[in-house]
Design goal:
Elements: E1 56-64, H1 81-91, E2 109-110, E3 119-129, H2 136-142, E4 148-155, E5 168-176, H3 188-195, H4 200-206, H5 237-245, H6 288-291, E6 293-294, E7 297-298, H7 310-320, E8 325-328, E9 344-358, E10 361-370, H8 377-389, H9 396-401, E11 418-424, H10 426-431, H11 445-467, H12 469-476, H13 490-497
Parallel strand pairs: 3-11
Antiparallel strand pairs: 1-3, 1-4, 2-3, 5-10, 5-11, 6-7, 8-9, 9-10
Length: 506
């Protein structure tokens, strides 16, 4: 009989060990924030292993003074902001040797394409770059001219594109207060005096034709268009008609004040011919601007006591408000036809409520916000607005110029007063606010203001003091150079609709 206390040992098959349970929680997704450094801040790890850097998709915030540059966009053979920036990125180690000069390889994009001489305070570009080790911004600035300043950069999504994700852009145009005075800077002597140099008289004489393109000779005239001879100046009509009847090359743009002696077109217009209008009408031999009258009174040639007060501010803002909304801006650019969908643009706001004093000269700060702008669009909007403010044209002309079936020659304000103030990424910021930093100029506001005052504002004021750029332009802002400023009734507009050749100003 077996002992009941005896224990029976039952062997069971061997079971696999239970899986190990990690005591650590998975790391939360790191917020991609990097304005001066990337995620990897060192060159080696604790064990001494060398870090292999990765390309980071970033947005770079920077400013520049456009003087001496042929615009933002890279152009072979021309000195551009983009060209200098690309070279600085390469010299700073952000772009490898095999990608140098090939921006598509590092996903390059710009938020705005500024024109020749135009500056920027809040420009943004994006791409994939090597931003390690720390000090990327300092390395960039050390390889750039002082007139280009990198503020910082921020990590962005892999699909980010500085152009496509930019919702709107704000530009500022600084116009001297005297330019809005209908009784200021009308005759050549006043322009010469305001420039502070007798040598400016030659420039003043040359400016009498500046900005005007003769039908059939200048502008984007195609060779298959039938061109009619136009009596431009009665005193030299024979020479000019010879030029008009000559063969016109496709896409050739020639400004009258730049034509040399081989064309038989005089650069300096004699006093006796100064007053001959474009349509061949007769006027007296004295300067045409001295004889024009505003509200029944002769224009004054001496310095006026004009000030940008409440009344003037209200009127100028009313003029600028005509541009707000969705319109066809084919008359406010070059090489864009009225039928082209690209001519349709949306202006969010246009305001000129504040003034700034720079180097003893007072300027009106004109801020325009829009989704996007075409070549010369802002300068032409300003040019026509100033013409209206100076009583050179009626307010109704702006409404007519925004019509699709009307072709009007619009004056172009000088480029020196224009700069890109800021680019906005509202939709992007809203969508990625939980994982990426906000794309804005808030963090760089102080640096941007210092750069603006030191380089951009001082350049605008000194250029006007030295060269009288705006003063000379105002001298050319007359009915002879821009006959469409005479248009005051619907009949004249209808006549313009039937014109055979469209001419735009540079």
């Amino acid at each position: 009989m077996e002992n009941s206390d005896t224990k029976l040992t039952i062997s069971s098959p061997t079971l696999p060990p239970p899986p190990r349970v990690s005591a650590e929680e998975p790391e939360a997704k790191k917020l991609k924030m990097s304005t001066t450094t990337s995620d990897d801040e060192g060159c080696t790890t604790v064990t001494g292993r060398k870090i292999r850097y990765k390309r980071r998709k970033i947005a770079i915030f920077f400013a520049y003074c456009g003087v001496g540059y042929q615009g933002m966009q890279k152009n072979p053979g021309a000195k551009t902001i983009e060209g200098d920036l690309e070279e600085a990125l390469y010299a700073s180690g952000a772009v490898p040797e095999h990608d140098r000069g090939i921006p598509n390889r590092y996903d390059w994009a710009r938020s705005a394409r500024t024109d020749k001489g135009v500056s920027a305070v809040g420009q943004v570009v994006s791409g994939r770059f090597y931003v390690d080790p720390p000090g990327f911004v300092d390395r960039l600035n050390s390889n750039l001219s002082p007139q280009i300043r990198i503020f910082g950069y921020k990590r962005v999504t892999g699909s980010y594109n500085a152009k496509k994700f930019c919702d709107r852009r704000r530009y500022v145009y600084l116009i001297p207060v005297f330019a809005l005075d209908p009784c200021c800077q009308q005759d050549r002597e006043s322009v010469m005096a305001s420039s502070g140099s007798e040598s400016e008289l030659v420039k003043c004489l040359e400016s009498s034709e500046r900005g005007h393109k003769v039908i059939g000779l200048v502008g984007n005239v195609k060779s298959d268009l039938k061109v009619e001879a136009v009596d431009v100046e009665a005193a030299i009509s024979s020479n000019r008609n010879d030029a008009l009847n000559s063969e016109v090359t496709e896409d050739v743009e020639v400004l009258v004040d730049n034509v040399n002696s081989k064309t038989d077109i005089e650069t300096v217009i004699p006093d006796q011919d100064e007053g001959t209008p474009l349509n061949g009408g007769s006027v007296n031999t004295s300067t045409i601007l001295e004889e024009e009258k505003v509200n029944g009174e002769e224009r004054a040639t001496k310095e006026s006591k004009f000030s940008y007060g409440e009344k003037e501010r209200e009127r100028f803002n009313r003029i600028l408000k005509y541009y707000v909304g969705t319109h066809n801006f084919h008359n406010f650019t070059t090489r864009t036809k009225a039928e082209d969908p690209a001519a349709i643009r949306y202006i969010i706001s246009f305001d000129a409520s504040t003034t700034v004093l720079v180097d003893g000269m007072e300027f009106v700060k004109c801020e325009v916000v829009g989704q996007s702008f075409m070549l010369h669009q802002i300068r032409k909007m300003m040019g026509l607005a100033v013409a209206v403010m100076r009583n050179c044209a009626p307010e109704s002309l702006i409404t007519n110029a925004l019509q699709k079936d009307v072709n009007i020659h619009v004056p172009t304000a000088p480029e020196v007063g224009l700069y890109l103030d800021e680019c906005f990424f509202t939709s992007y910021n809203q969508k990625w606010k939980d994982s990426h930093e906000e794309l804005s100029m808030k963090e760089y506001a102080k640096e941007a203001e210092e750069f603006k005052m030191k380089y951009i504002y001082s350049h605008i004021a000194s250029t006007e003091h030295k060269d009288g750029t705006v003063a000379l332009w105002l001298h050319s802002l007359n009915h002879r150079n821009y006959p469409d400023l005479h248009v005051v009734n619907e009949e004249a507009i209808n006549d313009n609709k039937t014109g055979q050749v469209e001419v735009v100003t540079e």
